[in-house]
Amino acid sequence: MSEFYINVVLQGVLLGGLYALFAIGLALSVGIVRLVNIAHGDLIILASYVLVVLTQSFGLPLWLSFLILVPLMAGFGYVLQQGLLRHVTDKGMLPPLLVTFGLSVIIQNGLLEGFGADTRSFSGGALQTSTWQLAEGIYVGALPALTLLVAVVLIFAIDRLIYGSHFGARLRAVSEAPATAALVGLRVNRVHALALALVGATTAVAALFMGLRMNFDPLSGPGRLIIAFEVIVLGGLGNLWGILAGAILLGVAQSVAGAIDVRLQVLAGHLVFLLIILLRPQGLFQRS
Amino acid sequence: MQNDELLQVAGMSAFYGQFRALTEIDFSVAPGEIVAVIGANGAGKSTFLRSLINHAGTATGSVRFHGTEILGKSTAEIINRGIMLVPEGRRLFPSLTVDENLRLGWEVGRRDGMTADEYFSIFPAIAGLRKRPAGALSGGQQQMVAFGRALLASPQLLLCDEISLGLAPLVVDELYAVLPKLRDRGLGIVIVEQDIRRALKVADRFYCLLEGRVSLTGRPGEYTRADVSHAYFGSH
Ligand SMILES: Nc1ncnc2c1ncn2[C@@H]1O[C@H](COP(=O)(O)OP(=O)(O)O)[C@@H](O)[C@H]1O
Ligand SMILES: [Mg+2]
After folding, report:
1. What is the pTM of this model?
2. Domain spans in chain A, listed from the N-terminal domain onward
3. How far, in Å, is the centroid of ligand 1 from the Cα of B187?
4. ipTM of this predicted complex?
5. What does the alpha-carbon distance between residue A210 and residue A119 come to, in Å, rounded to a whole number?
6. Between chains, do B93 and A182 touch, taking CB under 8 Å as contact?
7. Domain A2-279 in this protein, CATH class
8. A181 close to A191: Cβ distance less than 8 angstroms
9. B91 to A180: CB separation less than 8 angstroms, yes or no
10. Best of A32, A166, A184 to disrupt the B interface by mutation (most B CBs within 10 Å)?
């Protein structure tokens, strides 16, 4: 019985890896560009469909398709900011919400038009079926473990980029005081666009692991967005590692509730979120 | 029109929407010259400096830098051409370290002038604080970093907006002592001050602004205190 719950919690922890991948790009959008991107989940789904095209229409192997996807999504993020979002980035709260909501609808309908409503997923061969036995009766799947590992590595890399590089200093400057940044000669729009390129690259990673682990269809974006939102509100924006913690918490809550009653799984995640927000409105890891 | 001027402003006006903050300003700075801009609170001094780097409302008229019209060019481009501002209120990035703040100046600038090492030799007090967040420094130290951020952009024209504001007199002395050294390197310097006496002591020439217009200009010794006071406060 206790092994059962250890497995359940372990699976929740690993699920948190995937949720962290959903959330990291949104955290960067909100934290650096101050852009609450309603279309963030749809960007992940869009990236997944690009993978569908590369693997199925062009017949490329998944790993190669992914290597192509990363710069494609980075470029898309850059162009999206320079071409569209920069017109609303410093216009207060509402315009970015409206524009990215519109973008979300456009992406969903475009994908429905182009690909139909069928659900899709990627096949990852042995990666999806292998499991390791950690101890007597305790198992982890290779793919969920790899997902968590990638999330940790990605967060570490982005953390070093932001806090340990000259480019990162520019990102922090623009995030902290955009008007001052412009006053001392930083090209704020360009820095924002580069931040969105980074966001785009993270959506490529999220898309790959999402499509390996679960089905998706053109309307799956908002569900990913809600997860990403809950994770960054739980984890706070002050610290990237808070995202991982928030994601793991959400994953464990869902996993445990799902073990009690499958119908509770998603609801329980939201309830835990609401409960924590009531108790600690500043998020779990932010000093008040 | 003199060709030896570094900066030549002619008939510049500046607007915040309908509000006219500056009216028909004529102004010039030569290389190796310190020019003071004095005037009461709200006279338009900050607007003038920020208009030179296209970071205040909208400006009309002409601003020539090295003979090239720069009015309407982006702030980033103007700074990259060699005009840098030490903004009023310092405006550092408080969570960034001193080094990071200084480095941003270097990155946006021309990269052919003062180096970080040189800066630290002029302000040794800052050298020990390089890894501190700028927000943790005292006001005087912050002003020195703001000054350094501007200097590291290798400006040929340095604009200083009320660098003495809220600082202890000793710190202000230290900052002002640097200005003649920079002038001797050939920089043109504009200092904006409300403290008339201090500004006129160091300046080669001055302009007095009154309600957005130049009410008096010349050399500091040229006028009596009453003349300057009249130009500063208006006819009361
Ligand atoms: N961003 C702004 N928007 C509208 N009006 C402004 C703005 N900044 C300054 N002003 C107005 O322009 C005038 C000049 O201000 P400023 O240049 O700051 O004067 P000073 O630096 O000489 O104290 C003042 O009347 C001020 O209220
Ligand atoms: Mg001022």
Report:
1. 0.93
2. 2-279
3. 27
4. 0.93
5. 13
6. no
7. mainly alpha
8. yes
9. yes
10. A184
